[in-house]
From TrEMBL:
Assigned protein family: Belongs to the prokaryotic molybdopterin-containing oxidoreductase family.
An example molecular function term from Gene Ontology annotations: formate dehydrogenase (NAD+) activity
Lineage, highest ranks first: Bacteria, Pseudomonadati, Pseudomonadota, Alphaproteobacteria, Hyphomicrobiales
Coiled-coil residue spans: none
CDD domains named among the record's database cross-references: MopB_CT_ydeP, MopB_ydeP
GO cellular component: membrane
Protein known as: Formate dehydrogenase
UniProt cross-references to PANTHER family, sorted A to Z: PROTEIN YDEP (PTHR43105:SF4), RESPIRATORY NITRATE REDUCTASE (PTHR43105)
Amino acid sequence: MIGGFMAKDETVHYDGPAGGWGSAKGIARIFAKERNSPAVLDTLRRQNKPGGFMCVSCAWTKPADHNPLEFCENGAKATLWELTPRRTTLDFFAKHTVTELQGWKDHDLEHEGRLTHPMRYDRPSDRYVPCSWEEAFTGIGRELKALDPKSVIFYASGRASLETSYLYALFARLYGNNNLPDSSNMCHETTSVGLKKVIGASVGTSVFQDFSTCDAIFFFGQNTGSNSPRFLHPLQQAVKRGCKIVTFNPVREKGLESMINPQSPTEMLTGKETQISCQYHQVKTGGDIAAVMGMCKHIFARDDEAKQRGRSVIDRDFVAQHTDGLEAFEQKVRTTGWDEIERESGLTRADLEAAGQVYVDAERVIGIYGMGLTQQVGGFDSIAMLVNLLLLKGNIGRDGTGISPVRGHSNVQGQRTVGISEKPELVPLDKLAAMFGFEPPRDTGMNTVEACEGMLEGSVKAFVGLGGNFVRAIPEHGAMEEAWTKMRLTVQIATKLNRSHLINGEVAYLLPCLGRSEEDMQASGPQTVTMEDSLSCIHGSVGKHKPASEHLLSEIAIVAGIAKATLPPNPKVRWDDWQGNYAIVRDLIEETYPDKFHDFNKRMFTAGGFYRGNSARERIWKTESGKAEFTVPEALSAAGFEDRDGRYRLMTLRSNDQFNTTIYGYSDRLRGIEGTRDVLLINPKEMAKLGLTEGQMVSLQTDIDDGRERKVGGLKVLPFALPDGCVAGYYPELNPLIPLSLHEKRSKTPASKAVPVRILI
Ligand SMILES: Nc1nc2c(c(=O)[nH]1)N[C@H]1C(S)=C(S)[C@@H](COP(=O)(O)OP(=O)(O)OC[C@H]3O[C@@H](n4cnc5c(=O)[nH]c(N)nc54)[C@H](O)[C@@H]3O)O[C@H]1N2
Ligand SMILES: Nc1nc2c(c(=O)[nH]1)N[C@H]1C(S)=C(S)[C@@H](COP(=O)(O)OP(=O)(O)OC[C@H]3O[C@@H](n4cnc5c(=O)[nH]c(N)nc54)[C@H](O)[C@@H]3O)O[C@H]1N2
Ligand SMILES: [Mo]
């Protein structure tokens, strides 16, 4: 027995469906644990509805035709976590030294509750001490003015609103750099770079309506049940009307197997579950390129047969009119052997032919993907392969079709849309120059990996974090923590205490801000903020809850405060006006991006959000060739390293009880793993090969020979249904194992889903 569930096939396995009573219990547990007040329930009732407050958890869309309660287990947990009555007060900081707190677990740090006062790190006493906002802004401004702007990083973690993000990016450029890495750099940067290259648009092309008309959905490496649970509703409806869902994932994720809709009394009472995937393929991690190659082989074979009957499986008209490069791709598919495909994907020819046949039979197809594809050395090729597959039958730019990456943080896509980018070519700099009367920097800024490299070599001197937990989320944890303390200045804008606040530069500030669910009162009255969801719809969000402390400022007020203390006066740059009325900031966004944001203030409460448009959806291909591009992958494996005896491919996973580095608890309910996160998941066959027994403690060591030892110990062996040669554990605990050099080739997204490791017994 593990965690109350019978082990099945000798592997840890939860037999219940996603959703159902399990999710209701998950919410109740956090409600009790955080001792939230009943007023919080009102916030939940308004969650993700027009005029309400937009969830701080995932970026899944907020449909116009919403459920009576449009939130999921994890969205509720995120809200309850933000609205906790607990406070990390000045007393707490007086009691504990920073060095002592470094020994605390991620869960315990955040569980202390909301930060209440602006603070500065006092090195002699090794404690955070209170400081006034004025002191903080003046102190930060003084430091920034003394530094070379090129040596300063302005990170953002994907949660801050469009208004804050626009001003934050503007501040960095007025100050003098494009060093604007975003959590997206660790996440969907492969998408931004990859889709831009092959279809000329950096975000997905599907809209919500497409899920009501598609005939098949192919799912690659996205864990809907835990990471975007509200998405299970349209999936369940799709299945009920006959849509086929085919999943590729090394892990049998519960949400993609079956669900009970917690919004349906009948389903809850009868326990009737819907099977979600009609085929579930446990592809080897890094094996998706090969898997899609196999499907394409089948499609070409069916097309050859159809030709003899004067027909065609491939949409030749679409291919001729809209695409480039089919010939080279087709040749690659035809010359790649099934033996290679089976070896690299870990799947059989029969499996891949069955998946390919679903594609052949479907008129309208959507391709979904998440971190399973993006966080690989060959992530670009994996995404490009999925696009190849879709292009064969014109499945982009038509109703019921599309490529649909599922984004992470609630506004991570929007942050990029309004200028948080290290890539100046993606930002209308000339327009900014004219609007604000300055010469913006034109050189490319640093992304996350480059910022880390800069810290390691000492060229990066300061870090400003707009949310997030950078030091904990990045690869190369050990060396990075050491390098971090060598910086001159670190500034963290945050709601709760986390590990990144405990590894400080010489001068360090911790600035507490309002959460999105809280009322944001400014000179012109209560404010609205906006965000962009995964399907490119923009929504207004109004926080109504009483702020956690009277000393909190909004993120915009903090950015404005730092900016005013740092920059010389400029009559076109009116921080006080902007801070006093966010509608003026929305006007600036509209002026900068008129195509996407026309009538922004008028449209922001449109039910279901307003769509900001996507050229590829209109079949306008803003690529180098002017067409959608077929791509020949560089290699069949996305892992980017050779298999060797004793070497395993490690995936770092999220549990159902966390939001990134925020650990709500120790229950990965949907995988049946309870009570600990320090685990090594491995299949029974590999366990037998190594002579491992369940519960045995082992260490993992990175199997890369670059002169640096990376090891994590104290991991409990749990038998788990994974493909041979693959092992798994949790992020962020295993981040010390990920070398900074192991990243996607084009986008530099850290390759957190295939790290070469050895198991030390
Ligand atoms: N509750 C909750 N919600 C979240 C988050 C959270 O931590 N908790 N995080 C948010 C953020 S920032 C993001 S980016 C998203 C992340 O959401 P996802 O994109 O779902 O990311 P992960 O859970 O890291 O991994 C996704 C899946 O990839 C699979 N996988 C691993 N390797 C491979 C492979 O080689 N091929 C294939 N096909 N699959 C593979 C894993 O088994 C896992 O099921 O979720 C967002 N939503
Ligand atoms: N090994 C491995 N590493 C990974 C990943 C992986 O799958 N495997 N995933 C990567 C991905 S996809 C991502 S997106 C990154 C996540 O990296 P980050 O976005 O940097 O990390 P989070 O854990 O989301 O940040 C949590 C902190 O944000 C702060 N916070 C919460 N709400 C607010 C708010 O409203 N305002 C402000 N200012 N602060 C707030 C709180 O202080 C909280 O402690 O991690 C990446 N790292
Ligand atoms: Mo993410």
